[in-house]
From TrEMBL:
GO terms for molecular function: microtubule binding. The lineage of its organism: Eukaryota, Metazoa, Ecdysozoa, Arthropoda, Hexapoda. The gene is LOC117210641. This is Sperm flagellar protein 1-like. One of its GO terms (biological process) is regulation of cytoskeleton organization. Residues 8-113 form the Calponin-homology (CH) domain. InterPro entries: CH_2 (IPR010441), CH_dom (IPR001715), CH_dom_sf (IPR036872), Spermatogenesis_Ciliary_MAP (IPR052111). The keyword Coiled coil applies.
Length: 222
């Protein structure tokens, strides 16, 4: 396959891949869509969620804001994936230069597939080689429901996230139980204080009532 044909094939794969991703807004032009880095943050969030805090990336029209988003992505995410971008590339991306984002996506796609392939032998030992490749490639499609298996690194990541969420739920349950105990103690305290207030009042009222009754009887006799 010639370099030109291979490049065309790669681009077709990238465009097909992008069509499968449900971004936050409709896709119109790849270079402009990715220029502020938000689409890239959303894309990376799907495959490397632990690295990406989507709230750090705010859509913007100014070149300065776009560069800022890309620099944040570069520092916090891409550098950890060995896909670090140079300043010139970031400027080109922010200025929507045609063809630049496609090159980045080709490199990123290769990285994702490489991560999927890393542990596939241990996970898919019983599969034929062709079947392994199809399963690994299906990871790029987030809407793939026919695939009944996932790469090991995806499984490990999801398992870890589940454990973290379960731990958080347990902590919240403990806090709720603690607050309920405090409420019960406060209710009991309020009841005790109310009782202490009412009792003296009742005691002070009783003698007066008795005295009034005695005076009334004396007047009747007179």
């Amino acid at each position: 396959m010639s370099v030109e044909l291979e490049s065309t094939a790669n681009l077709e794969e990238i465009y097909t891949w992008m069509e499968q991703i449900p971004f936050s807004k409709p896709k119109k032009n790849l270079a402009r869509d990715f220029s502020d880095g938000v689409f890239m943050a959303e894309l990376l969030k799907r495959y490397y969620p632990r690295y990406v805090d989507i709230h750090n990336y705010i859509p913007g029209n100014s070149i300065a804001k776009k560069i800022d988003n890309w620099c944040t992505l570069n520092r916090k995410v891409l550098s950890k994936l060995d896909v670090k971008l140079g300043k010139d590339v970031i400027n080109q991306l922010a200025n929507s230069q045609p063809g630049v984002i496609e090159k980045i996506l080709i490199e990123l796609r290769a990285k994702i597939l490489k991560d999927c392939n890393a542990d596939r032998n241990s996970l898919y030992a019983e599969y034929e080689e062709d079947e392994k490749k199809e399963v690994v490639k299906s990871v790029l499609n987030p809407e793939e429901i026919a695939n009944k298996t996932v790469p090991r690194h995806v499984f490990v990541r999801l398992k870890q996230e589940l454990e973290e969420k379960n731990e958080l739920i347990n902590i919240l349950h403990q806090k709720v139980s603690h607050l309920e105990s405090l409420i019960k103690l406060k209710d009991q305290r309020i009841t005790d204080l109310t009782s202490q207030i009412i009792k003296p009042i009742e005691q002070s009222i009783t003698p007066r009532t008795f005295a009034a009754s005695t005076i009334s009887k004396l007047r009747t006799k007179i």
